[in-house]
Amino acid sequence: MTLHDALKSTPRLPLDEDGGPVFEAPWQARVFAMTVQAHESGMFEWTEWAEALGKELAKDGDGSVETPGYYDRWLNAFETILRSKGVAGAGQLRELRQAWDAAARATPHGEPIELKR
Predict the structure, then answer these.
(1) Chain segment 46-92, per-residue pLDDT in tens
(2) What is the pTM of this model?
């Protein structure tokens, strides 16, 4: 299956007129790219990914601002599949997410977010 075919089979993926994914923020493109790279490295089949994402998207919420957006759900599904494959533990992912959130809050608008070690 080509990446283009895989994208077409991805639940609710926002696509442009050329069939490419649409992102509203750089972090969305990064988590998308990490997912594609993990798939291409053989970590999981795209059908497994589509199933994990579909389960996450089924948790639609109430539409309020607290309801996670599409790529928030994508990130949750990616973390779920990483845990299920034994690639990362829940604690590791939680700490990394907290570090990124702190770095984002400390970064002036328009500047690149840098995760300090």
Answers:
(1) 999 999 999 998 886 655 556 678 898 999 999 899 889 888 766 77
(2) 0.73
Residue 13 identity? L
Cα 71 to Cα 16: distance, rounded to the nearest angstrom: 16
Q: Which domain holds residue 45?
A: 3-86
Q: Specify the number of domains making up the chain.
A: 1
Long-range residue pairs from 40-44, CB within 8 A, at least 24 positions apart, any chain = 43/81, 43/85, 43/87, 44/81, 44/85
- Residue 105 CA to residue 116 CA, distance in Å, equals 13
CB contact burial 16-47 (16+ within 10 A = b; e otherwise): eeeeebeeeeeebeebbeebbebbeeeebebe
In the predicted structure, residue 28 carries a pLDDT above the cut 70:
yes
| 111 found inside a domain | no
Taking phi over 0 as left and psi of -120 to 50 as alpha, with beta for the rest, 114 belongs to beta
